[in-house]
Write a structure and sequence with these properties.
- The complex is a heterodimer of chains A (about 290) and B (about 350).
- Chain A is mostly helical.
- Chain A has 13 helices and 2 strands; from the N terminus they run H-H-H-H-H-H-H-H-H-H-E-H-H-H-E.
- Classes of the chains: A mainly alpha (about 290), B mainly beta (about 350).
Chain lengths: ~290, ~350
């Protein structure tokens, strides 16, 4: 009797052990497939581990398989932005500052009235643009600086987002605008503003402005500004029609009448000398 | 007894194919918390055991996981306990979001500086007898957030606040075979979203963090079969989350979850040891092997040492039960031992309680 009972218990134990083995085998079978981690999640991990090149390789490989995948393209753009040194977590506050700056209509109106009494009428649109650009100066210190090498990656990131066209989700326009703002600052720094070289004596007579380079730079900056306004208006559901109109008018003036800059040359030269130093557009003989 | 074991075996075989879940869903997270889950309200002991507690006869700081174990509580008592994890700095901000107060300060505070945040806080009042157990939880708050891709951050965030009543009863239906029933009534407010950080600077993004509400009543049966042996082996099963919900949400799931456990209590000269191997889901997104959990519980006098291991990580804790007061501390980590993985979460929990 005791042996029969003990045999029964042994069978029960065997049944339990078989069940556990069955579960483990089921799990092992599925674990082989588990190693195929989601590529976007994997790329996030690589970016956060500062292995951006590997993330870019992974994403470009996946895009070859699924070129229409919007999420993959956006993640690839963010990888290039990361390669340019953009870490957006710290920059979220800038979005609010930019909105506040653009929406500060009273301040712009006051500056517009002040500028209207001293500048020629033909260049009024351009003057208004200068004033509006100045209103961004408040947030510029928060925007990260990038170098020429970084700017190449950043331009490619913006290109990737732009190439999605209508497929780019509305909420991603704000991200595109942020990248464009960073590029905007780089372009301003590179063409108009540099650090003062204290060993060089500053003199208006020994410096002359390269008007063609200045004109080209201002056209590029204005176009970028227009892109920022358009993307901000889509991404934040805000209305920047007034600013867009001014910028587009300025672009027309610059394109059709390059000499408008000559009227402003003294103003720019003085401002650069006094406030920021020399830029590439100004050639100085020592 | 033979028929019972074969029935159990067939039951398990029939449910495993239904539980097959796409492997990508469970891999969509990096570095989740090892012992805090949005739909699991558990005590310090249960967390220490890696939630492998169905076959544990007596949980020192709360109700047994399996209502079939109710008859094993020989002493009646009324007690209260308070559990807290690290991450307290974000407690107010999480509560504000759960109250619908989603302003820029709360968002900046939660997501501006930190890559991950975590918090769990529970208050339980327990009434335990050999025939009926009851638990009132006036407040249980759990929150976890992880930010990925610092170039264009994506935030995976959940916060949940619950209040609940739980009743348990159990009895010995046949020799060494116990049946039990648990009834839970839960009121919860929750936020569970995956959003781009930039979108939180817009009103639309902030609106996605508005809380949802849900009421649930669960009726959950359980059973345990003890096998006559010096090592006291036992097999338990439990049906979790069977009940009704006031409203279903796609982003907060609590499907019916059959759970199975196997336990042993090897005889020791000093103290009591219970080992438990369990198959249960905590996130309802795991693949099968991720549902396996191993727990060990050693009691010596008023000291209770517990440890647990599962696919989420490791945990170890100690709980002291001295007269009217009790206290415990638990450490858990998602980092496997010996791993050089830099993405992991460590959590420390403390629990204080007293008996009346």
């Amino acid at each position: 009797m005791m042996n029969l009972k003990s045999k029964e218990y042994n069978r029960n134990f065997i049944a339990v052990i078989l069940f556990l083995l069955f579960i483990l085998l089921q799990g092992c079978n599925q674990s082989k497939n588990k190693n195929q981690q989601d590529p976007i999640l994997k790329s996030y991990q690589l970016i956060d581990e500062q292995r951006t090149d590997e993330a870019i390789s992974l994403l470009e490989g996946e895009i070859l398989k699924s070129p229409e995948d919007v999420k993959l393209n956006i993640t690839l753009a963010s990888a290039y932005a990361h390669k340019a040194g953009v870490k957006l977590q710290k920059l979220v506050g800038i979005v609010l500052q930019i909105k506040k700056s653009i929406e500060n209509r009273k301040k712009i109106k006051r500056e517009k009235e002040k500028a209207g009494t001293t500048l020629a009428k033909s260049s009024k649109g351009f003057s208004e643009l200068l004033i509006k650009i100045n209103s961004f100066i408040d947030v510029f210190e928060s925007i990260p600086n990038i170098d020429q090498k970084d700017s190449v990656y950043l331009k490619h990131a913006i290109f990737l987002l732009s190439s999605l066209g209508n497929k780019l989700p509305k909420k991603e326009y704000l991200y595109k605008a942020i990248l464009e703002v960073i590029l905007f600052k780089y372009t301003l720094n590179d063409t108009l503003i540099e650090e003062i070289n204290e060993n060089v004596l500053l003199s208006e007579q020994s410096c002359k402005i390269d008007y063609s380079l200045l004109s080209e730079s201002m056209i590029n900056i204005t176009k970028l500004y227009i892109m920022i306004l358009i993307d901000l208006s889509i991404g934040t559901d805000s209305n920047y029609d007034e600013e867009l109109k001014i910028a587009e008018n300025s672009l027309s003036e610059l394109s059709l009448n390059p000499n408008v800059l000559k009227d402003q040359s003294d103003l720019i030269l003085k401002q650069n000398l006094v406030q920021f130093g020399f830029g590439r557009v100004i050639e100085c003989k020592e | 007894m033979q028929r019972i074991s074969y029935f159990l075996f067939l039951f398990v075989i029939s449910i495993i194919p239904k539980r097959a879940i796409s492997q990508t869903t469970s891999s969509l997270s990096i570095s989740k918390n090892a012992r805090t889950f949005e739909m699991q309200h558990t005590t310090l002991s249960m967390k220490a055991l890696a939630h492998s507690c169905l076959t544990i006869t007596r949980v020192p700081d709360g109700l047994p996981c399996n209502p079939a174990m109710v008859p094993f509580n020989k002493k009646s008592n009324l007690s209260a306990g308070f559990l807290l994890s690290n991450g307290l700095a974000n407690y107010e901000r999480v509560r504000n979001i759960l109250n619908g107060d989603v302003d820029q300060n709360a968002i900046d505070g939660l997501f501006g500086e930190n890559k991950s945040i975590q918090i769990e806080s529970n208050i339980d009042i327990n009434f335990i007898t050999p025939y009926l157990n009851a638990q009132y939880t006036p407040m249980a708050v759990r929150a976890f957030s992880i930010m990925r891709n610092e170039a264009h951050p994506e935030v995976d965030f959940y916060a949940i606040e619950e209040s609940s009543y739980t009743f348990q009863s159990g009895y010995e239906a046949f020799q060494n075979f116990y049946l039990g029933l648990q009834v839970r009534q839960v009121e919860r407010s929750f936020v569970k979203q995956k959003v781009q950080l930039l979108s939180l600077a817009t009103q639309e993004g902030k609106n996605s963090l508005k809380p949802n509400k849900q009421s649930a009543t669960y009726i959950e049966p359980g059973a345990t079969w003890f096998i006559n042996n010096s090592w006291k082996p036992r097999i338990s099963f439990f049906i979790a989350n069977s009940g009704v919900l006031s409203k279903k949400y796609d982003n907060l799931i609590s499907p019916i979850d059959p759970q199975l456990g196997f336990g042993l209590a090897p005889p020791l000269d000093w103290g009591q040891l219970e080992l438990s191997l369990e198959w249960r889901s905590l996130t309802y997104q795991e693949v099968n092997y991720e549902k396996l959990r191993l727990g060990a519980y050693y009691q010596f006098g008023s000291m209770n040492l517990m440890g647990g291991l599962d696919s989420n990580g490791i945990s170890g804790g100690v709980f002291y039960d001295i007269d009217k007061l009790n206290a415990g501390v638990l450490y858990s980590s998602t980092k496997p031992m010996g791993s050089k993985d830099q993405n992991y979460t460590q959590t420390v929990y403390i629990q204080l309680g007293w008996k009346i």
